[in-house]
Amino acid sequence: MSEQEIKEIVWQVANESAAHGPGWAQEGVVLRAIGDRIAGGNGGRLDPRTQQAILNAWHDLFLEKKLAWGYDLDNPNSPFFHVR
User: Fold this and answer.
1) pTM of the model
2) Could you tell me the residue range of the domain that residue 69 belongs to?
C-alpha cells in the first residue's frame, strides 16, 4: 500500500470518527481503527514500516491544518482532535 493510499485512509477515518463525537475523536481510537482497516479487520499485525507510515500521515494532517488538537472546550487538548 502506498503512502498516499495510507494518508487517504487516515483522513477518511479521522473524518468519520470526528463526526461521532469526542469519544471517537481521539488519537488512539482513530489510529487503532486505521490499523484495523489496513490490516483487513482481522486483527492482523502491521509491520513497523506501515505503522510509521500511518503515524507520518496522521502528523501530516495536523501540519497541513486539516486537523487540530482539541474537540471542544471540555476536551481542548490531545488526544482529542477536530476536523478544521
Assistant:
1) 0.89
2) 3-83
